[in-house]
Design a protein that fits this description.
Layout lengths: L2 H13 L2 H8 L3 H15 L4 E2 L6 E2 L1 H29 L4 E6 L3 H16 L4 E6 L2 H9 L5 E4 L9 E15 L19 E4 L5 H12 L5 E5 L3 H9 L4 E5 L10 E4 L7 E8 L8 H12 L10
Parallel strand pairs: 3-4, 3-5, 7-8, 7-9
Antiparallel strand pairs: 1-2, 5-11, 6-9, 6-10, 6-11
Helix pairs in contact: 1-2, 1-3, 1-4, 2-3, 5-9
Length: 300
Amino acid sequence: MDLRHLQTFQAVLREGSFRGAASALRLAQPTVTLHIQELEAELGLELFDRRGRRRERTPAGDLFASRALPILDAVEALARSAAELRDGRGGFLRIASIEPAASRRLAPLLARLRARRPALRVKLEVGGTGGVSRAVADGLVDLGLCSAPPTELGLRFEPIFSEEMALLLPKRHALARARRLRARDLEGQPVLLTEQGCSYRQAVESALQRRGVEVEWALECGSTETLRSSVQHGLGLAILPRLAVSPPPRGTVTRRFDDLKLALPVGLATRPGTPPAPPALATLISELRREPSGRASRAS
C-alpha cells in the first residue's frame, strides 16, 4: 500500500473534497482522483460517496480511516523525532488552544521551552473548544488545550485544571459595592456573553438556569478583549475566565458569587491510538501537567 495514497486519503477527509485535497497537497486534481481510485481498487471497496459536492466517507471509508490515520500519525511522529535528533534541541509543535489558556498558560511555557530549544518551531491555533477539538480530530494539530470536546469526535480528554470564572463589572455599579453577590442579582442586568457554542457561555448559562435565573443579554461577542472593553465603557456586565480579567481593566472590578461556583474543566485533547509524542511535545505535555496554574517552570 502506497504511503502517498494514504496521505491523499487523509487530505480528502480533512478538506472534504478532491479539489481541496489537491490544493492542500499541491497536486493536480486528476492525481488525487487517481490515488483514491488506485487505493479503492487495491482494497476492493469504495471509500467515498461520489454523490454531492462534498466527499463523505462510506462505511468502508470510516473503517479504513480508523486504521489508516494512526499509521500516518506514527510515520509523521517518527519523521519528526528523527528531525529533532538531527537538529539537537529543536522540534516542531502543532497546538490548538482556547483563551485565556493560550495567552496566559501556554505562552509562558512555550517561551521557556524555546529558550532551552532555540531551534523549536511552534504552530499555535487559537479558537473555541469546537474548533480546537476539530483540529485535533482532523490531524491538523497534535494537541488541544480546551474544555471537554464533543463526544462524537472520539477524542481522549485529560482534565488538568479548572478555569475559574468571575463577574467583571464597572467600579461604580451597585453590585460592585454589594456585601454579598448572588446569582439572582443578575436578573434584569445587561449581561455581555461570548458567542453561541462557546464552552464558557454554556457553563454560565447552565449554572444560571439551574438557579432559575434569566439574564438580559446585551452583547454577544467572541472576543474576550472586546467584552472587557465593553464593561469598561458601561455596556453591561460580563462573566469571564478569571485569568482573562486579572488584573481587571481600569475602572472595573471582579466579584465572586456567594451562592454559585463557576468553573470550567480544561485539559488535553488528543486522538486515541496516536504514537508516543516526539520529545518537544512530550516535554510540553509534561510541563502542562506539572504546572496547571501557569506558574513559572523550567522547561527542558
